[in-house]
Amino acid sequence: MKPVALVPVYNHAATVGAVVRSLHALALSVILIDDGSDAECATTLDALAATSKAEAEIVLIRLSRNGGKGGAVIAGLREAQARGYSHALQLDADGQHDTEALPRFLDAMRNVPQAVIVGYPRYDESVPAGRLLGRYATHVWVWINTLSRRILDSMCGLRIYPLDATLPVLDTMPQQSRMEFDTEILVRLDWAGVPICNLPISVRYPPDGVSHFRLWRDNARISWMHTRLFFGMLWRSPKLLSRHFSERR
After folding, report:
1. Do 18 and 100 touch, CB atoms closer than 8 A?
2. For the chain, is the Cβ count within 10 Å smaller at the N or the C terminus?
3. pTM, whole model, 2 decimals?
4. What is the arrangement of strands in the sheet containing 159-162, beginning at the earlier edge strand?
């Protein structure tokens, strides 16, 4: 197994350095995907890339314009596969996730290399109530669209993808480039029979944190995604139900 970390970045100049240092502390190479960041963040990423070492390199991919988190992650997954990595650890650049838990995720990857390792958040008091409500609505739709509760949280920005299983699924799905990607790829991996391993992760919302979620635009895209997935679930339902009952036995 040869894992690499993927960090999609859009104007996270203040936090991305600490995220990269936490990954380097685990001797992980890092692929930074600059999703059309401003000049300040671009300069920060250039400086990080200049610290690359043979044992833990930093690769910087620069996208010509901001295309959304999904587009950045897709570019990173394809680059990871092209470079011969077996797994990609996706981590947000905003510093919300407890990076001290990363060794547990890597251990799970080694124990179940064929599975997607997915974080499910454990929030402190900093989480906005509206975020919790919106996430729960998505959780319910994911449980409907997989006819299971195999995916406890489809929106967490910390996960490890097995590339050999993920890229073929990615090649068959609509190119969702923004916030809906994290959910859709997990549902489609579950449909493909890829095991899901859920691990808890502490998450905090810093008071000066940067969010790129756009209420109306992204909720509309997420709603359309759930609708498409629902109809995709209907014709897959016999297989999904059979799988559900076989797992219960």
Report:
1. no
2. C
3. 0.89
4. 58-62, 30-34, 3-9, 87-90, 159-162, 116-123, 196-203
Beta strands 87-90 and 159-162, pairing class = antiparallel
Tokens 């090649």 locate to 171
Handedness of CA 129, 130, 135, 141 (dihedral sign): positive
Long-range contacts of 22-26 (CB under 8 A, 24+ apart): 22/99, 22/102, 23/56, 23/89, 23/91, 23/99, 23/102, 24/56, 26/102, 26/103, 26/106
**Which residues, 6+ apart, have CB-to-CB distance to 118 below 8 Å?**
151, 152, 153, 154, 156, 158, 159, 186, 196, 197, 198, 199
CA nearest neighbour of 180 among 209, 220, 231: 220
Specify the higher pLDDT residue, 112 or 130: 112
What sign for the dihedral angle of Cα 210, 216, 217, 222?
positive
Contact 60, 20 (CB under 8 A): no
CB-side neighbour CA atoms (13 Å) of 247? 13
Nearest to 91 by CA among 64, 73, 71, 116: 73
108 Cβ neighbours under 8 A, 6+ residues apart: 115, 117, 160, 197, 199
Residues 75-119 have pLDDT tens digits of: 999 999 999 999 999 999 988 888 999 999 999 999 999 999 999
Give the pLDDT score at 114: 97
Nearest alpha-carbon partner for 9 in 53, 78, 61, 58: 61
